[in-house]
Amino acid sequence: MDTPTEPATEHTPSQPAGFQRARSDEQREARRRAILGVAADMVGEMPVADLSLNELSRRVGLAKSNVLRYFESREAVLLELLDSAWRDWLGRLAAALPDGVDAAAPARTRYEQIATVIAGSLVDDRLYCELMSVSAAVLERNVSPEVARRYKLAAIANTNALAELVGARLTELSPQGALYFAAGTLVATAGLWPQAQPSKAMLSVYEEPAMAVLRLDFGTAMYEMLATVLTGCVARWPATPPE
Question: Which of 58, 170, 217, 239 has the smallest number of CB atoms closer than 10 Å to its CB?
């Protein structure tokens, strides 16, 4: 996908007043971070479907063509934002697991503790959950092979990092089992998050006693899903296979 060439002049009718071209690597990186920061704020305010490149450009204070020098599309912005949010979440999870999981507890207890810590960390991370929930269906659809490959390499690294965090707290689980659990965590997040963000129409339906059971609490649903998947992974891929 071609990136628009940079205009020859410092100011054009499409550029906001006060626009200054980023000339150094530091300035260009600062502008990329600014674009990502504004995009993160917008995800906190609106569904991803409503986040347009035009509005993003306006809030950043750049012409759309200038934003496209740094990211080839809206989706490319959000994929990079997802990777950043993913790594931030992993960092917080790495800090939370030692306090939340008793290394001396029985394996069954540690299943539940790991599920509790992960679910709780996700409840508090709307940015990551929102982007993960639309990653495959939306964000991967309007990017070049180069951007897609870079994102997928980052996703592999992030998934492996989650597997290592879990495996370190549950030595009964083989590395393969930890990897499958990590992948299952991503799928559960992507599937449960949108189900737990009902529209106003659905909220009114859930007020009916017969329908109330359909309303999901994200934290509770994630805990139950993760505890179940982790139990199954240990049974199927134990660190020491049964003879």
Answer: 217
